[in-house]
Amino acid sequence: MRSFRQARGPRRGVRIARRERHEKGGRRIATDHRVNEDIRVSPIRLIDNEGEQLGVVSLEEAREIADDRDLDLVEVAPDARPPVVRLMDYGRFKYEQAKAEKEAKKKQHKVEVKQVKFRPKIEEHDFNFKTRHAREFIEEGNKVKVVVMFRYRELRRPEMGEELLDKIEEELSDVAQVQSRSGLENRNMEMVLAPKGWDV
Q: Pairing state of beta strands 113-118 and 143-149?
């Protein structure tokens, strides 16, 4: 009878290589599950790859079944008595698990605060260009900090900044709502816009 450690075709080589990575240099590397040779307790409760209970069997018998089916033994409930072990393609399981986690991360949107700067005497073309960018940021689910920057003589007319912020608020009112707004401080006026419908 061939040993469980004996290589049999390319898949067995993959399995041994994976086990070597787990135990490289005599140092055991933590993994999510005990797999194949890492499982030490006998007997075990064995479940096949279709979810069917195969009953309580010795570890040696489970290894023979895994060999015959060219599958891995994966301990899924180590605290049970006896421990529960499942037959599966562990490499495929880890791949699908990583793929699912990657997809979940894509769906999680991290909210950022984007900054768009204006001048009180901004030209209409530049105003449209900047508000268009602000709209894009908001539609992506981000907040936008609008900063109106004053210089020299402009500081004598803060109402110009107020009027500009009013105009920006109105321009983006279909997609955004004001979260905060400040008066003239340190040559700047600021307004933070959040996507419409958010709690502000």
A: parallel
Q: What is the residue type of 20?
A: E
- Residue 173: CB partners within 8 Å, gap ≥ 6? none
Please give the pLDDT value at position 16. Answer: 37
Structural domains present in the chain? 9-102 (3.10.20.80), 113-195 (3.30.110.10)
Q: Which amino acid is at 22?
A: H
Mean pLDDT by 10 residues, the chain (200 residues): 40 39 35 81 90 90 91 90 92 88 73 91 94 94 94 89 95 93 90 82
Written as one string, the DSSP assignment of the chain is: ---TTS--HHHHHHHHHHHHHHHGGG-PPP-SS-BGGG---SSEEEE-TTS-EEEEE-HHHHHHHHHHHT-EEEEEETTSSSPEEEEE-HHHHHHHHHHHHHHHHHH-PPP-EEEEEE-TT--HHHHHHHHHHHHHHHHTT-EEEEEEEP-GGGGG-HHHHHHHHHHHHHHTTTTEEEEEE---BTTEEEEEEEETTS--
